[in-house]
Structures are given as C-alpha cells and as structure tokens.
C-alpha cells in the first residue's frame, strides 16, 4: 500500500476514534434528559452505556452490566426512573414509575438513601426533565417536598430508635420443628408485646415489638402478655 494511502487510512481511523470518544464524552457529561431519550440506554444495545434514573437524577451503571443489562436482576430499573420500585418491589406495569404518591416518610427516606448510594458508587450523568427537575435543571416543588418528607422520616426513625433503646428487645429464635420463642435474660425483665406508635408516621401502619419490662412496669397500659404464657414467665412460646 502506498504511503499516501496508508496515511489517509490512518487519518480516517483516527477521526473515527475521535468521534467515538466525543460521543462517549457527551453521554458521560451531566446533561438534561427526557424520559424518551433515557429509554434508549436500557442495556439492550451493547454499544451504548446503561443509564437509570432515581428521583430525577441519572446515573451511568454500565460497570454493573451483569446486573443492569438484559437478564440481570436490576434490568427493570435501566432506561427509566422507577423510583417507587426501589421500596415497593413492584417491577411490572404501573409499579415502574417515578411517582411516590402514598408512600410513607420511612419509605421515601429509603429511596433518598438509594439515591445517595448511586451518587457514591456510579457516575452522575444528569437530570430528567419532568417530575423532579424543570427544563432548566432546577429542582421542582415535588422534589423539595420529597426531600423534606425523607428528612422527617429520618428524624422520626432516630427518635423511635432512641426511645426503644431505653427498653431492651427480647431475644428470639425460631425453628420449623419447635416454632418460635421469645425470652428475656435473667434480670432483664419479662417479655411483653408493645406497640410502636412511631410506625404510624413512618410506615402508615402500627406494628408491635417484643420488649423486656421489669415487674414494676408490667402495669403500664398497652402491654400485652403472649397467649399461653404465664404472667411472670421470662420466656414464651410464639405461634
């Protein structure tokens, strides 16, 4: 091959390489996205990065292709903002949405924690214009409301933990052969079911936990003796 032809071929290859690098740079540089644009980067084209959105922020998760590509356990998140599914576990149809309507403050706080994980672990690639960011890339009232609700959830969770730390949890075990058992160590008290009132604000539901109360505290309202368990028994079978 003549020197001139080799030179032209080399220049053509160099131009092609520069074009690819520029395209990758543009994709990795943070920018504004529409949902339609983002949908192309769902991992089905191996020549493109894999992107996902959470609370309107876009991340390049290409290094996790085995998880976010076709057949991966997190593929349903790729090419879209499916913020709700991070806590709902609904990965089909209406579950793959960025709407957080009806979620508790604890659930919203959990999604905000997921977003922090992506900021820490993956490349931030921009923002989605829509529910969380406007056409200028500024946070919407919806996003500000979500972050305030998450902050309240974190505060309530910390308050509940602080209150519960004052009264120790029961020990517990379960086996298929023997069923469940809860117990309190010697001197720690007697097992009782007690409501967790903070859960109403955190999850929208009321749950109970097993805690160890001293004999002088057993008259407190709201304490429930396990069915079939003696009043002053330190261990109880659980059905």
Output the keywords.
239 residues, three-stranded antiparallel β-sheet, four-stranded mixed β-sheet
Short structural description:
The chain is α+β, with helices and mostly antiparallel strands.
Task: Break the fold down into its secondary structure elements and pairings.
Layout: H1 3-28, E1 31-33, H2 35-39, E2 51-54, E3 57-60, H3 65-68, H4 85-88, H5 105-121, E4 123-128, H6 141-164, E5 171-175, E6 179-183, E7 190-196, H7 198-203, E8 207-213, E9 235-238
Parallel strand pairs: 1-4
Antiparallel strand pairs: 2-3, 3-4, 5-6, 6-9, 7-8
Helix pairs in contact: 5-6
Describe the structure.
This protein has helices spanning 3-28, 35-39, 65-68, 85-88, 105-121, 141-164, 198-203; strands spanning 31-33, 51-54, 57-60, 123-128, 171-175, 179-183, 190-196, 207-213, 235-238. It contains seven helices and nine strands, in the order H-E-H-E-E-H-H-H-E-H-E-E-E-H-E-E. A hairpin with a 3-residue loop joins strand 5 and strand 6. The N and C termini lie far apart (85 Å). With 239 residues, the protein is α+β, with helices and mostly antiparallel strands. The longest helix is centred in the first third of the chain and has 26 residues, at 3-28. A four-stranded mixed sheet has the order 1-4-3-2. The chain has a three-stranded antiparallel sheet with strand order 5-6-9, with no helix packed on it. A two-stranded antiparallel sheet has the order 7-8.
SSE class: alpha+beta
The ordered string of helix (H) and strand (E) elements is HEHEEHHHEHEEEHEE
The rounded Rg comes to: 27 Å
Low-confidence stretches: none
Number of strands: 9
Strand content: 15-25%
**N-to-C span:** 85 Å
Shape: elongated
Order of the strands making up the biggest sheet: 1-4-3-2
User: Biggest sheet, open or closed, and with what strands and sense?
Assistant: 4 strands, mixed
Mean pLDDT: 89
Helix content: 25-40%
Q: Number of DSSP helices?
A: 7
């Amino acid at each position: 091959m003549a020197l001139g032809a080799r030179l032209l071929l080399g220049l053509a290859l160099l131009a092609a390489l520069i074009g690819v690098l520029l395209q990758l740079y543009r994709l990795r540089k943070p920018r504004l996205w529409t949902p339609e644009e983002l949908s192309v980067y769902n991992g089905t084209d191996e020549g493109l990065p894999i992107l996902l959105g959470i609370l309107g922020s876009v991340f390049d998760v290409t290094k996790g292709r085995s998880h976010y590509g076709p057949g991966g356990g997190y593929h349903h998140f790729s090419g879209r903002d499916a913020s709700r599914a991070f806590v709902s576990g609904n990965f089909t149809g209406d579950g793959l949405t960025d709407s957080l309507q009806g979620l508790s403050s604890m659930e919203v706080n959990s999604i905000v924690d997921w977003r922090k994980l992506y900021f820490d672990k993956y490349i931030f690639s921009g923002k989605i214009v829509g529910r969380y960011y406007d056409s200028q890339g500024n946070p919407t009232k919806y996003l500000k409301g979500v972050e305030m609700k998450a902050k309240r959830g974190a505060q309530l969770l910390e308050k509940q933990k602080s209150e519960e730390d004052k009264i120790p949890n029961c020990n517990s075990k379960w086996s298929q052969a023997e069923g469940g058992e809860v117990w309190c160590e010697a001197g720690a008290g007697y097992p009782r079911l007690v409501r967790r009132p903070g859960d109403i604000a955190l999850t929208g539901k009321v749950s109970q936990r097993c805690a160890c109360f001293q004999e002088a505290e057993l008259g407190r309202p709201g304490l429930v003796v396990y069915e079939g368990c003696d009043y002053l028994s330190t261990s109880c079978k659980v059905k």
